[in-house]
Amino acid sequence: MSHTIRFIIALVFTFSFASCAKKQDPYGSGDFGSFDGDSSYGTPLGSRPEGASFFGSNVNRNVYPPIYFAFDQFQIIGAEQAKLDGIASGIRQSGRTVIIAGFTDERGTEEYNRALGERRAHSVRTALIQRGVSPGLLQTVSFGEDEPADPGTGEAAWARNRRAEFGVVN
Amino acid sequence: MNYLPHRPTPAIVTIAAITVTALLMLPTLSAQAQERPRITVTKDTRAPVVIRGLNPEAASILANDLDLSGVAVPSHDGAGVFTAEGSLAGGVKGRLRDASGAILFDKAFPGSPRMAIHRFADEIVRAISGRPGIAATQIAFISRRSGRKEVFVADYDGANVRQLTQDGALSVSPAISPNGRFVAYTGYQSGYADVYLIDLANGGRRPLVRAPGTNSGSAFAPDSSRLALTMSRDGNPEIYVVGLGGGGGRRLTRHPATDSSPSWSPSGSEIVFVSDRTGSPQLFRMSASGGGPGRLNTGFSYATEPDWAPDGSKIAFTARGGGGLQIAVLDLASGSTRIIGSGEDPAWGPNSRHLIYSQGGSLHLHDTLTGRRTTILSGMRISEPSWSRSSL
Q1: What are the pLDDT digits (tens) for B4-54?
Q2: Cβ-Cβ contacts under 8 Å, B207 against chain A
């Protein structure tokens, strides 16, 4: 078989694997019985790594830069998108599990902010999966408005707190 | 149950009833007015109650309960429409007489002495007004006074403060069950946001929801047997319902936006929650068995943390306007929303009249009929209060 045909076959394989990841049955065993799976917009999370906590000593939070978000938004804006290629490449090459932690600034109510932080983490996770990172390597946690990067008040501090951070599990 | 005998109702009670009914029929202002409406009581509609037979401490607790109820006022000059006679020997007993001296009830009240007095107060409120009282209830909340967020409970009047968690990890999103028996909350001691259940009857704690992702926003169903919450196990924050027995969970929402903060209708057949699917967080209403949610129009571009009143007629929530976070109440029949005051995270009392909420790190009790606000606990850096409907 010619190299060109092998290359085309490999490409077809790669793309069909990528779309398979989005359609796999999300509901394995567990305490939650059966659901009708509908994951066209989200890829289910896999099991957590044992004993790894985002702020724990066996997680390195300085490997990748944070992704920042606009006020009350969970979409990844243009300037931040550019960071994701390098981050995806790094995660694929290392093969290490990464915990994506989502945060908000202090404005608004706590529980919605907890969910918004989680939604931000999932925006980043989806973007990394689209760049070829295996879904099973990416865990999420949200701290909402807790654990700010900047404990101050005002636009500059708030902008630093609206973020998703990466913790690489050692 | 109304204990009134077959005789003409005392005139002052009739006047009080008519005045209260008239006040309840006052039109509520819509949010667009951007004003803080004030409902003032132009005539004292509270029934004076004389308290006898209790020691000073018990009498003080009872007097405070009657005062906060909004339907009674403790009488200090011996003139009263009603007389509450209590005794403490061998357990708390209480009796209520009307102006003619007839006995409306005479019974023993169980529980600790404080809780028994609260139950006596609630029985008086029920006899006078036909409505439930708020005294024999518990509040769960988060406090940062130790430096870290931990879960606490207290009586509704701020007494009997007890710290439930001491993990030194982040503990948030507390919910006390309507029957006052359980506190569910989200704890990060594993490094992840998991839901734990504390049994107040024996102090035991067990993990309840440890799915991958973030598990938070616990809200008990009215029968205290199920929990609605936000889970992100499927790759997005969605609303789920789980049983306390540990078996069976059902996913209710299916949308790529952020879904959070569920609260149950009093029948347990519907859930109100928050979604930013239209661009900013709004209140949505859906069947508790799943099905298409419908948006509730509050007039605010930011509406979160709803709490459905026990009588089903209204939903309290946090609104964000020009002046920061405010407590708002949406009347479901009329569709109009009014602002109660500054604060966040409102929770209804069993009478669907009083709210508790946090503001400035303090816990406040607010009578939505009269506008009277009472600080219950201060200096504790309080957030996310939750209110039971009864106590153990």
Answers
A1: 344 445 556 555 555 555 555 544 444 444 444 444 443 458 999 999 999
A2: none
Residue B11 has a pLDDT of 59
Whole-number Å distance between alpha carbons of B245 and B223: 13
- Say which of B170, B191, B234 has its CB closest to residue A39: B234
How far is Cα B127 from Cα B10, in angstroms, rounded to an integer?
A: 14
A32: distance to nearest CA of chain B, Å?
5
From residue B41, alpha-carbon distances to B38, B126, B383 in Å are: 10, 21, 30
Contact between chains at A115 and B234 (C-beta distance less than 8 A): no
For A26, the closest of B173, B234, B302 (CB atoms) is B234
Looking at residue A40, what is its pLDDT?
Answer: 58
Instruction: Give the closest-approach CA distance of B114 to chain A in angstroms.
Output: 33
Query: Which positions in chain B touch A46 (Cβ < 8 Å)?
Result: 212
pLDDT tens, residue by residue, A42-77: 899 999 988 899 999 999 999 999 999 999 999 999
* Nearest-by-Cβ selection for A111 from B242, B260, B320: B260
Substitution target from B209, B232, B305 for chain A, most A beta carbons within 10 A: B232
Mutate to test the interface with B, among A27, A118, A130 (most CBs of B within 10 A): A118
Contacts of A72 in chain B (CB under 8 A): 276, 280-281, 302
Chain A contact set for B246 (CB, 8 A): 31
Tens-digit pLDDT profile for residues B187-218: 999 999 999 999 999 999 999 999 999 999 99
pLDDT digits (tens, 9 = 90+) for A117-169: 999 999 999 999 999 999 999 999 999 999 999 999 999 999 999 999 999 99
Degrees to nearest 5, angle at CA B24 with B21 and B26: 120
What is the reported pLDDT for B1?
37
